[in-house]
Amino acid sequence: MNIEEKKALVTRFAKIEGHVRSIKNMTEEERDPETIMQQIAAVKKAMDAAAKLIYTEQMKDLIKQGETDETVIKKKIDSFIR
């Protein structure tokens, strides 16, 4: 992962962190459950996008390393999917 990608990922996690804090506050304030659930769904989507980015970078690294052993590749993929 290059520096720009790492910065983008860290920024993404900071936004997610703020979003989660907002959900916590909304819960403490006993806000509308539907609104809270919408915000939780947004956080889930953002986390999935971050995970996809990390997974993509891992696969790029395997390709750059010239990894061809299917067992090694499968283990890497399986460890990421869990």
List keywords for this structure.
about 0% strand, Metal_Tscrpt_repr, about 80 residues, Metal_Tscrpt_repr_sf, mainly alpha, single chain, Metal-sensitive transcriptional regulator, 3 helices
Strand content: under 5%
What form results from the Cα inertia axes? elongated
Determine the N-to-C terminus distance: 21 Å
Mean pLDDT: 88
Low-confidence segments, given as residue ranges, are: none
Helix content: over 70%
Number of helices: 3
User: How many strands in all?
Assistant: 0
Largest β-sheet summary: none
Helix and strand content put the structural class at: mainly alpha
Q: How much is the radius of gyration in Å? A: 17 Å
Secondary-structure element sequence?
HHH
Note down, in words, how this protein is organized:
By secondary structure, the chain is mainly alpha-helical. It contains three helices and no strands. The chain has helices spanning 3-28, 33-64, 70-81. α2 (33-64) packs antiparallel against α3. The longest helix is centred in the middle third of the chain and has 32 residues, at 33-64. The two termini are 21 Å apart. The mean pLDDT is 88.
